[in-house]
Design brief:
Length: 273
């Protein structure tokens, strides 16, 4: 017969009876930033092979649009919007369209149950996936911008602005795409919403705003990607108004925070169903 010390028995009894014994110590809660980094790496490695062909399609599409517009727009202010709009379309294709499809399929297949069992905050799942998809847009956006500047004879000196435009516009569009995928009742509807959003970014971003009717221009102002287009287009001026550039980027950042918060709420809502 084994002998157990009486102190151990008294401690166990007090815990079971709700006494003053030490309660069981749980593991620390997962922090946001380490969890976000883990989700980001996992999403990046998972989607790298599958998304590269789609990124090529997005880049080829934007380059083709600029070549087509070259026969309509000679240069000047209109060319600025064509180049900046085509560059942001690459971000919209990946961050909005593909992310809406991804979360729509994830919800329909029950994949959200897997993430719900992981000790990571919901915000880390949404932000990690959005950051991974937005990362795929960097090479295509840079290639599109350089090609457009050479095609229309625009300066390349302020190309560095895309380093800020890509993440800010990508955050706004990624949050919108994730929310569409998580709130859509069926994956087909999520795909449709992503396609419509990408088409709106294409038509309202590439076409010069001076040629748009007033009602269409109002819709353009409501689109988050518009402010990324405006920010990059302002840098082509001989003397860029950096206050306007900073203001457009601030709008992108604000919309990104709101859209990612809505996507996080939509993730919580879809995960508990």
């Amino acid at each position: 017969m084994s002998v157990v010390p009486a102190g151990v028995l008294r401690g166990a009894t007090s815990v079971q009876g709700g006494g003053s014994g030490d309660a069981a110590v749980l593991g620390p809660r997962a922090r946001l930033w380490p969890s976000l980094a883990a989700v980001y790496r996992a999403q990046l490695s998972r989607a790298r092979v599958a998304r590269i062909p789609l990124l090529f399609v997005a880049t080829f599409q934007s380059v083709g649009i600029m070549v087509m517009m070259r026969g309509v727009v000679d240069g000047g202010g209109e060319a600025r919007y064509v180049v900046s709009g085509a560059s942001v379309v690459v971000v919209a294709f990946v961050a909005l369209n593909l992310l809406a499809q991804y979360f729509g399929q994830l919800r329909a297949s029950g994949g959200l149950d897997h993430y719900a069992t992981l000790p990571v905050p919901p915000a880390a799942v949404v932000l990690g996936a959005a950051a991974a998809y937005a990362s795929f847009t960097v090479p295509g956006t840079l290639v599109t911008a350089v090609f457009g500047c050479v095609l229309f004879g625009l300066p390349l000196g302020n190309l560095w602005v895309l380093v800020m435009v890509i993440p800010l516009a990508g955050a706004a569009l990624s949050g919108l795409g994730a929310a569409c995928g998580l709130l859509a009742p069926r994956p087909e509807l999520a795909t449709l919403l992503g396609q419509l959003g990408m088409s709106a970014a294409l038509l309202l971003g590439v076409l010069p705003p001076d040629r748009m009717p007033g009602a269409v221009r109002l819709l353009r102002d409501l689109l988050p990607s518009t402010y990324g287009v405006e920010a990059y287009a302002h840098t082509f001026a001989a003397r860029p108004d950096w206050a306007l550039v900073a203001g457009d980027m601030a709008v992108c950042a604000g919309v990104g925070v709101v859209s990612l918060a809505v996507a996080t709420w939509a993730y919580r809502r879809a995960a508990v169903r």
